[in-house]
Design brief:
Layout: H1 6-17, H2 57-68, H3 79-91, H4 97-101, H5 106-115, H6 117-130, H7 149-160, H8 165-178, H9 201-221, H10 240-250, E1 274-277, E2 285-289, H11 315-323, H12 331-344, H13 365-377, H14 382-390, H15 403-411, E3 424-425, H16 428-438, H17 457-460, H18 493-497, H19 516-524, H20 526-540, H21 546-558, H22 564-581, H23 586-590, H24 603-617, E4 624-625
Antiparallel strand pairs: 1-2, 3-4
Helix pairs in contact: 3-5, 6-7, 8-11, 9-10, 12-13, 12-14, 16-20, 19-20, 20-24, 21-22, 21-24, 22-24
Amino acid sequence: MMRVCIPLIFMLVSALAKGQKYQELPILKEDREHWSFVPIERPELPELKEDGWSNNPIDIFILAKLKRAGLQPLTKASHAALVRRAYLDLTGLLPDYREVTADKQYEQLVDELLSSPRFGERQAQFWLDLARFAETDGFEHDKVRADAWQYRDWVIDAFNRNLPYDEFIRKQLAADEFEEDERIATMFCLSGPDMPDINSQNERRHSLLNEMTSTVGAVFMGLQVGCAQCHDHKFDPISQADFYRMRAIFQPAVHVVKNQSVRELREQGEPSKAYLMVRGDFDKPGPEIKPGVIRVVATDDPIEIQKSKSGTSGRRLALANWMTDKRNPLTARVMVNRIWQQHFGTGLVSTLSDFGIMGTSPTHPELLDWLAAELQYQNWDLKAIHRLIVTSATYMQASEEDEIYRKNKLADPDNVLLSRFPRQRLDGEAIRDAMLVAAGFREFEMKGPGVRPPIQEEVSQTLLKNQWNVSPDEKDHYRRSIYIFARRNLRYPLFEAFDRPDANVSCPQRQKSTTAPQALILFNSKLSLDLARRMASDILLTVRNDEEFIREVLRRCWCREPEPEVMEVARAYFIKNRKSAQEISLDQLEQVTPIPLPADLSIREAAVYSEFCLIAFNTLEFIIIQ
């Protein structure tokens, strides 16, 4: 329920604007009764009379709800489906078909994937969405931030090293306060859009501080604290003073110079006074504010702020320590919910960055609390939570339709009860990376400034001059998608078509649209055709028989053996295509022949190989996890 009526809020704001003293509402006992503000306690596991299905505690919670609804889980997915699912989920890449057929336990495969450098690259994409990461400032001039890529590389390395999540938070908020020469991680705070050339640098700094405070609250605590910039939050027990107390924590570390991009947090001298800004205006300071945290989440003891060993104010380190204190009810809940969403498409709480009054309640509250308690118990080990989820029987369910599937879908149409594994479409980065792997690109260079592969001339012309200079080294055109230059004013066309966010605000979950441009770009773009041609050539190095070629293409794209009916249709396509190729000019056919073209193949007989690879890229099974 709302704590205070809207007219009263406007009265308070109006009074403050007229110079009257700001009145902050107290935190009431009932304010802390909202589910997400209640301290985390590990719940008891449900008692089940018969359970031959569960692999770990996750399954016990899921099965208990399914039984209450009179449902049963689906059977286990095939080994091939599980291998492909785990690869795409944990690394964003397709497996080699030899991995699908290898004599290896699924749990062993999961451990190998969690240890792979590809894991960090995949996980970083989710985090960079939250961090509103880009390598440019945005706005009209969209100036390049020369060193922004270092933060991206730091995130990848942090996930690969399995940096404990509490340390992951501390470094991004306050690395310079306990590691004097380590500032790259604090780029998180200043990764949002900026306007370095604005006339009022005071307004610029005000905007950066407000945006940073809002993002930190949403990403780490799942609270929309930014709604309290101009007035008390209309629904959550977060006051305007709460917002500016938290902002005061960052204030000493944010400094701006006209026409220079911001980089990382850096404190200079003694902190200046902080104020509540009337109506959120940069030039209307109200009462003085001391640094502090969101009261509804805090304990009765005030946050302890001490000067750091490196000579800084210690404010941000105090905030990070408060966030990662096991008594904080939000931090662990928010993060395990984000991990759950990565694997199942929807979080246990569907509003991933809003655990407040207007957010949704958890579908499985006991499971959410058990996972949060487990993360803390495991010393904030994120890989341990990933492993727990992907080795659960819940995750290993099939997604193919059968009688049980149809019954479950009828009773649980939105799959709230996890009565089946949810099919999910890949994002644009994973689709491009899957095409790269299918085409034979398996050596992935890591680190370094973002690269610029070729894009359509019509798209590049929408930018200012020299804003997308194609990387001169052709090898860079085939690097993993995480390393493609992230320009705020222009998303790489394939990524934009498949719902990549614009990096102007933190994005907790991408949309999953189905649009005509997606089909057009997959079938007609130079990128798709180029990779199809290279895939055909790569396969033709060892295979010349049409039937074996077809099998190899579908093994690479679907990670399984094709059915006899599929093989029959494909063989018919090859015959029909070669026949029609006799009537097409060589100049036209040359545009679709394999790259490089084997010397012993004619253009007319080779074109079908590339075209079949392009068809495989456009099958539904290629672009979904199932």
